[in-house]
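Dear H.,

Thanks for agreeing to be a second pair of eyes. The structure we're designing against is below in token form, covering all 821 positions.
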């Protein structure tokens, strides 16, 4: 039975640390029919590949809900302006109609404003269908504005975090000011303090309660929900720590324990501060996607029956003719049908120089027209456009993981339960062996100002336990990889480097051998006829035969010969038969003749002797030209030389790769002489010549069998298998869709300089990931033992924990300063 696989992106609410994301991922993976599940804490999303015959998206959401988190399909939102409604019944009718439309998740119609807000699954319905539904009900509708970008949500989240933080500190600062003199007065002189000891204890409880149970309530609730599902998270640790500390304020009325209620408030204030700074930093890490979303044009000027009409971008359809004036954005992907201009494509390629556009040239949506007036025909709209695909690739890359993260994931999956166990052991140890452990404090008291070995044993036990709970930091482990991956993939998109899988970042930085296809990768892929040498016929007759035979070919060399024949005005004939032999050439029959055009192998297979033209062909090949042999009716008729020029930056890029420690290899179907000449010109010594498309895969395997990590750069259909076989496949973005689909990385700029930038980016990103993971592990390995020994005051512990998470995210953001050019 064949699987019906579907991929869905889910938004997840309530995750606060790596333990949360690990639990959600495990829950999704266990669902019947789920093939892959990847949860990203930083973006709060899950990408799930599942068999739709065995499970559904709603079942996946239910699995998330059962673990204590909120799950929903990541949807698009639009606001429709609805005309013709006159009463509440109209609004109710429109709302009901929209809700019943397949793919609509929510619809709310406001009669007073004449607007309808709709959330919908873009994989099930479209804006056009929603508008059509409203019109079918007897009303007019149009899109008011584009879907709000995630920036709004991030801003709201950041503002809410800031509000909680400032309220917490407004109440915690008076607590701190009151605590300081009490600390200096000592427990035996509290009665002399303002309001006395009882007043102090009551005041600490009263002032700290709004912090713990007010602004800190979301943390407590999150921690409780996670604990209730037997999957405690970071908030569970904070909740246990702060509630334990606050509980001492109550217990102090009945026991000899010290009052740490004020400390609890400060712990929560520091925790909320860390959350706020973390939210801001995570927002900066994901700003690349928001910038891409904001690049999109909001409207388009369509040319309808000779009249210009401005419409919302969502109303543009494939085949529509649009007008782009100087300074305006190209509304959607298309093709120039009239006019000439220069277009700034830097948003797509990272190149600052404008690109000249004329008849039949491709236009990329959201690029900016510089000078002339252009008319374009829309070829792709909506989610099919280049910009939409870039955003999708970046989001998918950010939802994947790198292999080095696997160990961190295993640790975070059991981290919090282990910490709770350590805290329990710490409490027991301090209660059972107070004098032995207090001896450590007496030694440390000379160096660590916040250590007080004179506190009673119960207080010391509570302090050490609370410190263990609040100092442990799974968040740093959980954020170490995704934040760096978010920044790296975003930087790549801004520079024309599209990374499809996070794994490619780690693998690419490990690569030491990089294999380049010749045509269209090292060379421009636009070969031209340079020489025609005929035997047994005239040059014109030879060109006519070859041009007609190649008229059915899709190969760049064949198209060059056919194009040259057209330019020379040769007579054309309809083909009676045509056969293409991959990597060798073509055989065609027309006008009573059988013509073969191709390599020596093809001539040998068709029994054609090349004795009379072999020497001439060799001289052409020594000059770096490709010799295309031509036979007519089984007899050698001559040779046509075709040459392809090097891309402008190929020589410099190869030199840079060598300096970076990589070994460049060129692979081509050309003969050894031609390949060697091009290799010398570009600076590549390792040449694999006369390799058929299926042979490219074997050559990649052979290199891999030598223990080498291999990257393959190519652009053609016949490169797709080799791109898949390579450890990292890099597709030139100007190539065919199949090559791009088979690759791990796509270079939009289409030159080798972009390949150099991709490797620099992967190395820089992976370096940040490795630094983050090292710091996160090192922090926990050092901090937790110190807390066990009572050398960490809970407040110092919470500060250290916050700094740990913030430093990881900040380090990832520093990646933006790296020059990958």
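And this is the sequence the design step returned. I haven't edited it by hand at all.
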């Amino acid at each position: 039975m064949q699987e019906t696989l579907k991929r869905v992106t889910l938004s997840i609410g309530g995750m606060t640390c790596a333990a949360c994301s690990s639990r959600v991922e495990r829950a999704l993976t266990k669902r019947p029919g789920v093939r892959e599940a990847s949860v990203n804490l930083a973006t709060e999303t899950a990408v799930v590949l599942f068999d739709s015959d065995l499970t559904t998206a709603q079942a996946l959401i239910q699995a998330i809900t059962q673990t204590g988190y909120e799950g929903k399909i990541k949807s698009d939102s639009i606001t429709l302006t609805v005309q013709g409604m006159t009463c509440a019944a109209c609004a109710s009718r429109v709302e009901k109609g929209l809700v019943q439309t397949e793919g609509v998740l929510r619809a709310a119609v406001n009669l007073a404003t004449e607007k309808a807000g709709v959330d919908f699954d873009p994989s099930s319905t479209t804006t056009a269908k929603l508008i059509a539904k409203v019109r079918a009900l007897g009303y007019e509708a149009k899109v008011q504005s584009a879907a709000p970008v995630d920036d709004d949500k991030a801003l709201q989240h950041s503002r809410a975090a800031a509000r909680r933080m400032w309220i917490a500190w407004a109440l915690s600062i008076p607590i701190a000011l009151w605590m300081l003199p009490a600390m200096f007065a000592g427990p035996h002189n509290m009665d002399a303090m303002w309001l006395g000891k009882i007043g102090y204890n009551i005041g600490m409880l009263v002032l700290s309660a709004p912090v713990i149970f007010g602004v800190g309530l979301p943390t407590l609730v999150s921690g409780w929900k996670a604990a209730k599902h037997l999957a405690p998270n970071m908030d569970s640790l904070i909740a246990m720590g702060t509630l334990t500390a606050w509980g001492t304020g109550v217990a102090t009325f009945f026991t000899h324990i010290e009052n740490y209620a004020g400390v609890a408030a400060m712990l929560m204030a520091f925790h909320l501060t860390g959350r706020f700074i973390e939210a801001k930093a995570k927002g900066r890490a994901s700003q690349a996607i928001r910038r891409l979303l904001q690049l999109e044009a909001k409207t388009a000027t369509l040319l309808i029956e000779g009249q210009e009409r401005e419409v919302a971008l969502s109303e543009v359809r494939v085949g529509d003719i649009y007008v782009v004036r100087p300074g305006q954005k190209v509304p959607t992907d298309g093709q120039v049908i009239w006019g000439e201009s220069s277009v700034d494509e830097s948003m797509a390629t990272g190149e600052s120089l404008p690109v000249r556009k004329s008849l039949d040239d491709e236009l990329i949506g959201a690029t900016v027209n510089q000078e002339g007036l252009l008319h374009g025909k829309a070829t792709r709209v909506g989610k099919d456009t280049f910009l939409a695909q870039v955003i999708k690739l970046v989001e998918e890359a950010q939802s994947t993981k790198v292999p080095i993260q696997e160990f961190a994931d295993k640790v975070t999956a059991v981290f919090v339960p282990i910490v709770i166990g350590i805290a329990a052991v710490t409490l027991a140890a301090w209660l059972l062996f107070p004098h032995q452990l207090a001896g450590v404090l007496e030694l440390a008291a000379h160096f660590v100002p916040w250590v007080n070995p004179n506190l009673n044993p119960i207080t010391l036990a509570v302090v050490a336990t609370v410190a263990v709970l609040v100092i442990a930091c799974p968040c740093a482990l959980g954020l170490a990889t995704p934040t760096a991956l978010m920044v790296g993939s975003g930087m790549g998109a801004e520079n024309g480097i599209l990374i499809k899988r996070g794994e490619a970042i780690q693998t690419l930085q490990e690569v030491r051998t990089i294999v380049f296809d010749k045509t269209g990768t090292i060379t421009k892929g636009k070969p031209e006829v340079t020489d025609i040498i005929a035997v047994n016929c005239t040059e014109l007759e030879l060109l006519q035969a070859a041009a007609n035979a190649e008229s059915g070919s899709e190969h760049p060399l064949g198209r060059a010969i056919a194009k040259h024949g057209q330019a020379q005005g040769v007579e054309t004939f309809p083909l009676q038969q045509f056969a293409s032999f991959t990597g060798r050439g073509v055989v065609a029959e027309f006008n009573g003749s059988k013509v073969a055009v191709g390599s020596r192998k093809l001539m040998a297979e068709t029994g054609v002797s090349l004795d009379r033209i072999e020497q001439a062909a060799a001289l052409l090949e020594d000059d770096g030209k490709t010799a295309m042999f031509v036979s007519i009716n089984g007899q050698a008729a001559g040779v046509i030389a075709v040459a392809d020029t090097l891309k402008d930056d190929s020589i410099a890029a190869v030199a840079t790769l060598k300096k970076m420690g990589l070994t460049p290899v060129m692979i081509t179907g050309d003969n050894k002489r031609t390949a060697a000449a091009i290799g010398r010109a570009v600076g590549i010594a390792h040449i694999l010549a006369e390799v058929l498309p299926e042979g490219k895969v074997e050559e990649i395997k052979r290199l891999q069998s030598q223990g080498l990590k291999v990257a393959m750069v190519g652009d053609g259909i016949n490169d797709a298998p080799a791109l898949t076989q390579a450890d990292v496949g890099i597709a030139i973005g100007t190539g065919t869709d199949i090559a791009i689909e088979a690759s791990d990385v796509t270079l939009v700029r289409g030159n080798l300089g972009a390949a150099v930038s991709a490797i620099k980016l992967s190395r820089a990103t992976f370096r940040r990931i490795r630094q983050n993971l090292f710091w996160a592990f090192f922090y926990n390995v050092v901090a937790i033992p110190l807390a066990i020994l009572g050398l960490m005051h809970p407040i110092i512990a919470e500060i250290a924990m916050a700094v740990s998470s913030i430093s990881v995210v900040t380090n990832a953001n520093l990646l933006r300063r790296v020059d990958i050019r």
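Two observations from my side: Residues 752-788 form the longest helix (37 residues). Residues 145-150, 184-192 have pLDDT under 50 and may be disordered.

Warmly,
E.
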